[in-house]
Structure formats: structure tokens, C-alpha cells
Amino acid sequence: MRNEEWRRDPAAYETRQELATRYADIDRWRHVNNVAASGLHQEARMHWLRQRVGPDAWYSDGVLLRPAVIATDFLGEGRYPGAIVAAALCTQADDQTLGMASALFQNGACIGQQQTWLQGWCNGEPVPLPAAVRQGAAGAFAHPATATDPAVAPAEHGPLPWSLSLMSRFGDADGDDVMGDLAVARLMEQARVTALRRAAPAFHEGIVESGLGIVVAHTTVRHLQYRRVVPEFDARIGMVRVGSSSFTVRTALYRRDACIAVADSVLVIVDRKAMRAASLPERSRDALLEVAPSAG
């Protein structure tokens, strides 16, 4: 996606709306958190659906419309207070899949872009798109650029050595009483951060000692099921790759014995004063490779 310049042009999108950032969206780095940014992309999709499919497209008492794959590039930092323009358009539509592109703009710059592939879901499993969605997407403006193939998303997570349990919240149930994609993203983030701190404490110590920071540069999430919220979920986490200035973490989220989502997250070490990529401190890199030697 990063090489597709049209995604960073607000005029390329069919719908646009201005949204205010909230104090609750800000994390310890005083920028819009990556899960909060994903919520703004979700609002862009919902706005397009309400315009194209109908005012009630945001909920369903039958077949649900939910993401199967979400690929997100985080290109810049969202700031509070301020306004963000959230834009969306349809990139593809067939009986099974609705492809949607979205982007976030603040002060004239694109700070994030996302490609989502939505499917119909019934009883937790994927089904053909609802007729109303297919009809609404018919004739919708679709950018001619070829969207990223959803097959790139991880479908099977392989061996993941770290595991932990995560408590859900009442608010994790969305408007259709299932575990929504933002709630999944929040649990994935919590699992990733907690596992790294437990398995490789020297990694974070090396980052702090060097005066550096960590930002999420990209995430790809494949949703395998949509089910109702249960009190506790299990997460399995592992390192996929350790580079010179970035690393990739894979997280699988389980509801009871069933895997409901798998995510790859690319994290980059940054010099926070210059806001550019920096090399992994030797102590931090050694700590990661000690617990995941095959990732190097």
C-alpha cells in the first residue's frame, strides 16, 4: 500500500468527513494510539456504508458485515486537540467480498491508510455478502489501482511460544453483540506489549536507556470468526522477524479453544526528537534474539 500514491490524496476518495480527536485517543507518547486510529478508519467505512447502502447499514439482526482482513499503514502521528479528515471508497465488490480503502488526514498530511476486505458473517462464520450491500456497492466509484491481495494476511499462526490470558470488558461487545474488530485490536495490542515485557525485559530497558521510542508502522489482521464476548480470551505471541531497526510480532487470539484472529504487527524503533527510524540498541536486539533466535 505504501507505494500507491493515490491513497494519500484526499480527492481520490468518494466520502470524507471531519472527526475531532479526543483526549481518550492519546497514549503515553501523546499521539493518537494505533487502536484509536483504527477506530477512525472504522468511522470512515461506516460513513461510506451509510451513504451507499443506507442509514441503517451500521447494524444488522441477520447477516453481519465485518472485516475478514484489515491491513493498516501508520504514516504519521495524529495529534490532540485537532480535527482529522477520514475518507473512504470502494476498491472492489463481488458476491463474497467488499474491498474498501480508507485514509486519515490531519493538517493536510496523510497520517494513515488502510485496506479492508469485508465479508458477510453468520453464526460466526463467513457467508456471501448481504444483497443490500451488493446493491449499494454496484456502480460505486472504485479506484483502478490493484488493492493488496488479502491472501498476504496470516491464516495460520505456526508455533508461538508465549501465552497469556486477557480479561474482556463489557464494552468489547459491539452493536451486534459480537467481539468487534476494534476490541480484537485492543486485546492484540495488550497481548503484544505484555508478552514483550515479560519475555524480554532487557529489550525495553535498552530502548529507555537509549532515549528512543517504539511506534507501530503496520498491522495486518485476519479475522477467522466473529463470536460473542466471553469473560476471558487467550493470546499466543511470538517473534516473526528481528531487523536492524524494526521487528515483527505475531499474535493469535483464542476464544476458548478456537482461534478467532491472527495479526502481524511491524514495530519500528524511532528517535523521538528527530522522528525518524533508529537502529535497535544492541542490548534490545540481543534480548529479542535470545527469546526468538530464529527471528534474526
TrEMBL record:
Protein name: Acyl-CoA thioesterase
Superkingdom of source: Bacteria
Pfam families: 4HBT_2
InterPro entries reported in the protein's UniProt record: HotDog_dom_sf
CDD domains xref list: 4HBT
